[in-house]
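JOB MANIFEST
job_type = single_chain_structure
chain_count = 1
residues = 184
[input]
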Amino acid sequence: MQGPLVPEIDVLINGARVPAKVLECLQEVAVEDSVELPSMFTFAISSWDAVHLNPSWVDDDRFSVGNVVDIRMGWGDKLSSLIIGEITALEAEFTGSALPLLNVRGYDRRHRLQRGRKTRTFLQKKDSDIAAQIGDRQQRQLGLRSASRSDGLGIPSRARAPHRLRGHCERQDHAVPADRKRAA
């Protein structure tokens, strides 16, 4: 017997499944996965309460900026997570030819690494130490995990030794490890 041709989709917000009523209103889901940039998601929900004749979902706390979203897709009960991110924007869309929509947009937590540019120097630090220092700061301030490695795997041997002085001018945190990898 052939399975369904259209995949199942599920949305969890702050670890809880959204009600079936929300999934029934789901019009569109998009996930853009990237290695170099933060991955992004959007989903659109028809936002009209026909009983009360006013927009629905727009003021629902579930869709507050900062809430964690897990979008899952698959067939039957075998759903896999496509992205875990946080809501960064809400957009109400009103047109004369369709029901109002609530567009929910968000990014994985790597978007936090793009906040602001910094100039800094590192004295007597290996590339792995520089990555760990940036990761530790992000972990403390933004709740991110540091995934730096001190074993130098993937980095040429000449880059494993401490640098006398390494400077980064006007760089975002996400760019520093990539710059070091290219320079090695």
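[summary]
Residues 148-158 have pLDDT under 50 and may be disordered.
The longest helix spans residues 127-142.
exit_status = 0
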